[in-house]
C-alpha cells in the first residue's frame, strides 16, 4: 500500500491484498465515481430501454399469436444457443458439460421420434426420457428455492455456511431446474406432435385418422396390458375424464412434459399447470431478453450514450 501523507491522501491499493468483499466494494466505488454527474444520460438510457422493452413485448406477442409454430421453433433455438455463448465466454465448464450431455441424448431421442415408420418402442422411450428430465428439473428447482429461502432466513449460520456460497448454490440449482425444464418441455412437444401424427390417433387440427380401440393407448399405439384396477410392476394404466385409457408414462409425458392440455384422441380439455406458466416466463427471459438488451446497447452506442 502506497499513500501520500498530505491532507488529501491518495491510496493505491494492491488487489492481491484485498479480500473478495473488499475488491467488490472497491469496484462499486469506482463505478459510482465514473457515472457521477451523468444523471440525465442515465434517465435517457432508461427511457430507451423501457420503450424497446414495450415494443419487443408487443412484437413477440403478435408473432406468437399469428405464427405460433415459427415463434416456438426460433425461441427453442434461442434457448439452446444463448446459454452456450455465455457459458463459453464466462468459462462455465460445469454447465457446458451438462448442456452437452443433455444435447446429445435429446438429439438422439428427437431423431428416433421423427423416423418413419415409427418403432413401437420409441414413444415409451421418448416419454420416459422427458419424464425423467421433468422430475430432475423439478427437483433442482425445489432444492434451489429452498436453498435461497434457507439463506434469506439466516439458517446457513447454524451450519457455518457463508451466505454467498449458499445463495450461489440456490440460484444455480434453481436456474438449472427451470432451464432444463423449459428445454425438456419444448423438445417433448416437438416429439409428441411428430409421433402422434405418425401413429394417426392425434391430429393438431381435424379428426384422428384412425379409430381407437378400448385396449389401445392413443399416445404410443401399443396395447394396454395392465387393467385400471391393477397395480403394474413398472407403470399403471390411467383413465381420463373422457374415459380414454393410456399408459402411465405416455399420458404423463403427453400432459405434463409435452404441455398438451387435451386428450390425445378426443381433445377434451384438462387442468392447467402453474409450473408451465413459470417456464414460459423463463423462456422469454433466457431467449429474448438478451436480444432486447443487445438492441438497447446498439441504440445507446449509436447515440453516443455510454
Order of strands in the sheet with most strands: 1-2
Can you count the beta strands? 4
Rg: 26 Å
Unreliable stretches covering 5 or more consecutive residues: 1-13
Secondary structure: helix percent? 55-70%
Sheet with most strands = 2 strands, antiparallel
List the total number of helices: 9
Can you put this structure into words, describing what you see?
The protein is mainly alpha-helical and 306 residues long. The chain has 9 helices and 4 strands, in the order ββααααααββααα. The strands form 2 sheets. It has a two-stranded antiparallel ribbon. A two-stranded antiparallel sheet has the order 3-4. Helix 2 crosses helix 9. The longest helix has 37 residues. The radius of gyration is 26 Å and the shape is globular. It starts with a strand and ends with a helix.
Main traits of this protein?
single chain; 306 residues; mainly alpha; two-stranded antiparallel sheet; two-stranded antiparallel ribbon; 9 helices; 4 strands; globular; zinc ion binding; metal-binding; transmembrane
Give me a quick take on this structure:
This is Ring finger protein 175. The chain has about 300 residues and is mainly α.
Amino acid at each position: 500500500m502506497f499513500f501520500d501523507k498530505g491532507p488529501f491522501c491518495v491510496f493505491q491499493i494492491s488487489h492481491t491484498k484485498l479480500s473478495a468483499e473488499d475488491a467488490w466494494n472497491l469496484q462499486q466505488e469506482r463505478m459510482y465515481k465514473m457515472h457521477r454527474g451523468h444523471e440525465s444520460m442515465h434517465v435517457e438510457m432508461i427511457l430507451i430501454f423501457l420503450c424497446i422493452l414495450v415494443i419487443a413485448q408487443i412484437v413477440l406477442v403478435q408473432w406468437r399469436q399469428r405464427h405460433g409454430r415459427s415463434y416456438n421453433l426460433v425461441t427453442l433455438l434461442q434457448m439452446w444457443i444463448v446459454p452456450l455463448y455465455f457459458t463459453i465466454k464466462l468459462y462455465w465448464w460445469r454447465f457446458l458439460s451438462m448442456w452437452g450431455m443433455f444435447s446429445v441424448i435429446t438429439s438422439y431421442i428427437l431423431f428416433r421420434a421423427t423416423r418413419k415408420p415409427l418403432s413401437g418402442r420409441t414413444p415409451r422411450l421418448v416419454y420416459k426420457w422427458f419424464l425423467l428430465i421433468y422430475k430432475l428439473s423439478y427437483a433442482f428447482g425445489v432444492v434451489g428455492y429452498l436453498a435461497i429461502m434457507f439463506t434469506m432466513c439466516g439458517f446457513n449460520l447454524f451450519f457455518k455456511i457463508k451466505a454467498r456460497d449458499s445463495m450461489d448454490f440456490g440460484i444455480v440449482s434453481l436456474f438449472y431446474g427451470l432451464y432444463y425444464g423449459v428445454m425438456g418441455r419444448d423438445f417433448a412437444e416437438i416429439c409428441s406432435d411428430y409421433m402422434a401424427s405418425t401413429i394417426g390417433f392425434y391430429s393438431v387440427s381435424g379428426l384422428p385418422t384412425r379409430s381407437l380401440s378400448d385396449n389401445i393407448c392413443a399416445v404410443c399405439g401399443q396395447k394396454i396390458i395392465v387393467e385400471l384396477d391393477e397395480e403394474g410392476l413398472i407403470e399403471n394404466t390411467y383413465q381420463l375424464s373422457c374415459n380414454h385409457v393410456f399408459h402411465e408414462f405416455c399420458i404423463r409425458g403427453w400432459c405434463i412434459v409435452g404441455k398438451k392440455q387435451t386428450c390425445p384422441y378426443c381433445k377434451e380439455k384438462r387442468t392447467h399447470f402453474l409450473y408451465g406458466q413459470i417456464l414460459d416466463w423463463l423462456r422469454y427471459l433466457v431467449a429474448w431478453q438478451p436480444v432486447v438488451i443487445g438492441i438497447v446497447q446498439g441504440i445507446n452506442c449509436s447515440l453516443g450514450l455510454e
